[in-house]
């Protein structure tokens, strides 16, 4: 095959992203051929339902009922996997594709988070490409930004807003003063959130993406299991209002940091100072910041989901492959990725936002303040807001910078106290 | 040469950026070798003064008194050109390097804006790389972002804050309410602005960069001569205050747009809505927005200058070359770049901010309003602020959206009117 022959693609999965890839390759065909130096052509597709109307003509492509068969097609150079799921048919297809020496492009963050190292090794053995730009931050080319753009830097920290659903919900709560459950229900009705939204709102999706960014940034094997993962389910409109009064926005932020104590990875609701670039990331946007030892702080921002942006990332990977511009999936050979050593969050220092719903009675504030004092947590500010409808009172504390271990001790001391109505909320300050 | 031999670099120019490249290659040596698949080693350097203390040890490198000789060294694979200037020694070195079949990495925006097409053709003929990430937006990997990250998209518009000196001055004027000349003098005293700052403050530097972005975005040959170029010299603290009252920040923005009337390129002071990402780009930061037909709006942001960030971009290019991951300099063969057809700004539609300093006498407002009416310019708002020390009065107008030709006609009508104290200021609204 000479470089002027088209790159031939077998496409697995024809949901909105798969249909988007078909549309993009049709719409921008000539441009892509000029930029890639050769055409990119879909030769075969597979999905659950052949007859479904997807707004694109798929009759011109060969059809496989069995998605796994795409890996065996001799007329394809690359398989694009848009099936989803960390295991099952997606993983089987990925393994078969690479084992057969074909390249693989995937948008599957769960699969990469769980099986990325194995797949990278398979790709290297085969001399094939494994590309996953669409797995993180949708259309934002942050994988390429880290692999190529920031390649000269030791990355010290990578963090960002990695889940558009959570950001959509938080910014709507912020704009309209509404509570979480209410906004989630609306987002689900509008199709902006899945019926089972727990992967999004409990931070799992963002944790998948963060673990991928950490591998690329730090040259460590993917360690999804080490991500301390939290979500936004317990954030109240009142928390957002308190944060605003203090000069912060509330955002679900994934942070990965390589330090002397090891690799720290966390997805959690954070207070972000209003003058930080992430504070201006609204709605379904995603943004990633990488801090390099020479370049300083780089920001990449754009649409984190949607058929067009995600297709843009998938096809950018195909263009890399068509150009022959790909190397080891994690920028260095899988064998040279170091085993990550998970850092203990207790060793971290930072400021915290702590919110308690408490009974409206004498001595509660003293109890909280004593727990903080006994654990060595220094309080920067404390706000108490009048009684809610149910008679409970909101107490919000911002701490001075200190070890997270101390905050955890203070919360342990208060656990089960009859003064508290429900679990306290702990948000970190970025 | 096998791929495991180091990439050997000859470095021309040892100013702050050149010294930064030496420091970076020292500091991140092992990491770069892992990421690039081979080492990257400087073998020879050239600069004006061999003895000058640059904080880096250059005695270990071969020295050339004559910079042009670097192109002839048989022990180098790549020349890094950090000499500067659109022509002269930089261009001679670039031509000789590529003619001799070596690859070239440059941070030289002026040379790329004026001679980029010729150099790209020379690189393609030689099968060598021509890389210029550091020429635009310092450490921000926007060249790679457009060439690779956004490669699947038809880019409709690319725009951004491309000159850190102007942005530093404007944000300082904004924060401190001071006038241009005052802040410029301070920036020069602090070394943040050149003694001869005209390339920066009159928009020429940003125009160089914009023409490079336009070539990559639209597949057109560089057309620096077609950039309508203006600067920030005439922006008053009072303009920034008026803009703020209307919900805008003032920024020097370069905009390139491919439309039905041709390619439009302009560098000009703009009013940027406070909720636009560019409104949050402060100090010496740079940011570029690319709007693609599938990906939507992508934002790349970071340090636009400085030795560390610029060295980061230069070495990222060297890593691309070490990996063998480079193609035609403008992402498609130079021969296939279309000749840009410059669009007439008069055909553009938009909103405008117009500011007049006028004599404090009866009838002046009526004269301005009549000129607007006669030219068909519709006024959205008009503010008149009390007399300045010299007795002149500031009148600021924001127009409704309309053809720029009409605004130009209105200003023509007013030209030379004895009612006006000095030239009006026209800023576009982004």
- Helix/strand/pairing category of chain A: alpha/beta
Beta strands of chain A, count: 18
User: Which residue ranges of chain A are poorly predicted, with pLDDT under 50 across at least 5 consecutive positions?
Assistant: none
Domain count of chain A: the total is 3
Regarding quaternary structure, how should these chains be classified?
Answer: homodimer
Features of the shown structure:
homodimer; 430 residues; alpha/beta; Rossmann fold; Dihydrodipicolinate Reductase, domain 2; Alpha-Beta Plaits; 3 domains; 10-stranded mixed sheet; 6-stranded parallel sheet; 13 helices; 35% helix; elongated
What does this protein structure show overall?
2 copies of one chain form a homodimer. In chain A, strands 7, 8, 9, 10, 11, 12, 14, 15, 16 and 18 form a 10-stranded mixed β-sheet that branches. A 6-stranded parallel β-sheet of chain A has the order 3-2-1-4-5-6, with helices on both faces. In chain A, strands 13-17 form a two-stranded antiparallel sheet. Chain A has 13 helices and 18 strands. In chain A, helix 4 links the parallel strand 5 (103-106) and strand 6. The longest helix of chain A has 18 residues, at 109-126. By secondary structure, chain A is α/β, with parallel strands linked by helices. Chain A is elongated and about 80 Å long. Chain A folds into 3 domains: 7-139 and 325-334, NAD(P)-binding Rossmann-like Domain (Rossmann fold), CATH 3.40.50; 142-303, 2-Layer Sandwich (Dihydrodipicolinate Reductase, domain 2); 346-429, Alpha-Beta Plaits (2-Layer Sandwich), CATH 3.30.70. The interface between A and B is large, with 59 and 59 residues. Strand 12 of chain A pairs antiparallel with strand 12 (296-303) of chain B. Chains A, B: Its EC number is 1.1.1.3. Chains A, B: Belongs to the homoserine dehydrogenase family.
């Amino acid at each position: 095959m000479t470089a002027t022959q088209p790159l031939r693609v077998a496409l697995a999965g024809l949901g909105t992203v798969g249909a988007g890839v078909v549309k993009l390759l049709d719409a921008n065909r000539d441009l892509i051929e000029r930029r890639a130096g050769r055409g990119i052509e879909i030769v075969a597709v597979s999905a659950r339902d052949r007859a479904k109307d997807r707004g694109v003509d798929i009759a011109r492509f060969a059809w496989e009922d069995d998605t796994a068969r795409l890996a065996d097609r001799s007329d394809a150079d690359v398989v694009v996997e848009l099936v989803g799921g960390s295991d099952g048919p997606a993983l089987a297809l990925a393994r078969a594709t690479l084992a057969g020496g074909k390249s693989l492009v995937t948008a599957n963050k769960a699969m990469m988070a769980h099986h990325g190292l194995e797949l990278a090794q398979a790709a290297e053995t085969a001399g094939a490409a494994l590309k996953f730009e669409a797995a993180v931050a949708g259309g934002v080319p942050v994988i390429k930004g880290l692999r190529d753009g920031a390649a000269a830097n030791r990355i010290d920290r990578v963090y960002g807003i990695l889940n558009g659903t959570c950001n959509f919900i938080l910014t709507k709560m912020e704009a309209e003063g509404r509570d979480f459950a209410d906004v989630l229900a609306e987002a689900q009705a509008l199709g902006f959130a899945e019926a089972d939204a727990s992967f999004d709102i409990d931070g799992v999706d963002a944790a998948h993406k963060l673990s991928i960014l950490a591998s690329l940034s730090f040259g460590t094997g993917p360690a999804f299991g080490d991500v301390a993962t939290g979500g936004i389910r317990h954030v109240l409109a009142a928390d957002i209002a308190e944060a605003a009064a203090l000069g912060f926005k509330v955002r679900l932020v994934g942070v990965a940091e390589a330090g002397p104590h090891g690799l720290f990875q966390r997805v959690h609701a954070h207070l972000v100072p209003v003058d930080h670039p992430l504070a201006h990331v609204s709605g379904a946007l995603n943004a990633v910041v990488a801090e390099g030892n020479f370049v300083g702080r780089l920001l990449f921002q754009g649409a984190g989901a949607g058929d067009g942006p995600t297709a843009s990332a998938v096809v950018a990977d195909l263009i890399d492959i068509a150009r022959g511009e790909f190397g080891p999936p994690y920028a260095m050979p899988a064998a040279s990725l170091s085993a990550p050593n998970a850092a203990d969050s207790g060793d971290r220092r930072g400021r915290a936002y702590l919110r308690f719903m408490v009974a409206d009675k004498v001595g509660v504030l003293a109890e909280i303040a004593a727990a903080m004092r006994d654990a060595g947590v220094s309080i920067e500010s404390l706000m108490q807001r009048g009684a809610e409808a149910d008679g409970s009172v909101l107490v919000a504390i911002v701490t001075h910078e200190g070890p997270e271990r101390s905050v955890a001790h203070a919360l342990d001391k208060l656990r089960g106290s009859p003064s508290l109505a429900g679990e306290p909320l702990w948000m970190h300050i970025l």
